[in-house]
Amino acid sequence: MVLVNYADRKVNCKIVYCGTGEGGKTTNLGYIYSKLDPSIRSDMTKLAGVNERTLFFDFLSINLGEVKGFTTSFSLYTAPGQKQYAAARKLILNGIDGIIFVADSRADKRQENIESLKDLVEDLKVYNLTLENVPIVFQYNKRDENNILSLETLENDLNKLGYPSFEAVATNGSGVFATLKSISNLILSGLQ
Ligand SMILES: Nc1nc2c(ncn2[C@@H]2O[C@H](COP(=O)(O)OP(=O)(O)OP(=O)(O)O)[C@@H](O)[C@H]2O)c(=O)[nH]1
Ligand SMILES: [Mg+2]
């Protein structure tokens, strides 16, 4: 649910990066942080444990300026992908307006991607949300790796509803802003 403050004419949208462990969610956020002017973004909060794996979430806020007469900001979060952090993963979905599902393109991650999406569908039910009623964009990350799944396989496995999807190499930023812009457009176009 997009938080709209009519008195102050402010809109805040919550976007969560979801997907399998080590798929590149934190890397996406780090790239966005590194490229945006400090005047329009917050500091990046990282709650990471060993090996930089996300424990609870990462957070970055972006001020987009005026959109349709409202001061608009995005709160970007990453969910922890590791299996054992199911509770944190569920909590972070509270109040979301859009999801970026980061899939790991490597062939040996095929099942993990599918399971991660299945878990997401279950977690969304807690908030009365489904893949049909919450905007989602898919990002097929790690396209620079050697043994990767074809786009067709990834689309068939994950994107059955035909949402926008992007190839990415988050480590060099390729596809990162295209993905973010796409979910922003989906959310803002739903806000009439
Ligand atoms: N080759 C390659 N490596 C990547 C890419 N994106 C991320 N990585 C690497 O994959 C590893 C995991 O990336 P993270 O961004 O920490 O993954 P995550 O999805 O946040 O993982 P969790 O926090 O455990 O859920 C890191 O070593 C990254 O440098 C990519 O596009 N290509
Ligand atoms: Mg992470």
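^ magnesium ion complex. Residues 25-26, 54, 78 surround magnesium ion (ligand 2) (CB under 6 Å). The chain has one domain: 3-189.
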